[in-house]
Fold:
Amino acid sequence: MKILHTNFHKGWGGQPNRILVECRGLAELGHEVVIACPKNSQLHQRGEAAGLEIFTDVTFARGFRPQFLIHDARALRHLIRQRGFDIVHTHGSQDAWATAAAMMRLQPRPIVLRTKHNIFPIQDHSFNRLLYGRCTDGMVCVSSAVVEYCAAKPYLKRENLARIHSAIDFTPFSEGSRDHSLRQELGIEDRYVAGALGRLRHEKGHKYLLQALPKVIEQAPDFLLLIVGSGSLEDELKQMVSALGLEQHVRFLGFRTDIPRVLGALDLFVSPSLSEGLGTAPMEAGAARLPIISSEVGGVPDIIESGVTGLLVPPAQPEALTSAILTMYKDRAFAQRCGEAAAIYMEKTFGEKRLVLETDALYRMWLKKKRAAFRSNAVA
Structure:
């Protein structure tokens, strides 16, 4: 198969990571794979390092910017005509719109699929009904919650929705490989360390976690929270730490690429998100044998069974976070059981090979459906 993946993100996160895993695996299966993404984006750099072909004559600029949309549509149209792709797989709104524009009156037209990586609302205006209902053949949903959300849209047919969970590389988290060196580097060997990893944006819910900490510290004076990531709320969150008097109990580590090393420094992983399509960070935490506390939102219940692999709490409720953190802090045996159960479940359910094979099978199903429709039309 000839396959084109598109993505507008310039930074790194669960979405570009999934694309890299899919494309690397599909290439290893013998398919011809190209990734279209902005030049010097993290996906560009990491994709090239993985030996993948990258097409960077696209901007996928945010917002309605006609000059960039026209440029990207022309570039993609030329690429698609030149290479004759069987599948074009989009992953975000900017690249999906550019792809839709590139496909106008294009014959023969490849199959167009779209992965919905989150549970952010799809606005029901006429343009989205056109984009999702007519310009996209099928949707890949990263969790059961995303499937149900999409199925409720009248212009999305349930039979065209496929749930394929994201995946992680378990190699850095194999048993016995846990790296504790960051604790020594940071001088926190004698602390109980929790971590929150993710972009510093409203939907990640960091402020509710910070609001939970004063009561945690009353009963756990050695508690330390490491906040890993960067984003628009960084200054606001730092001001909040100061206002709550948490300077000795919260550290901001910024954007990190050594996530297995960061997880190796933790006793507990906390994800206070308000919205998650699935959640790569909790998956990696579980693979690292960490007990997990997470908001019960979106696709998170696909990852965590409360009381077995971690604890689920209602979103935006600091008191619930306080209670869950203190439960893990006080009952270390329970926390360890959760971490061990999480590692077993993650490896069984979220392996990279499974993601690649399920994606390959989906592509083959769509190509078979296309050939059947062609034969039917020819007979008619």
Observations:
- The first helix runs from residue 14 to 28.
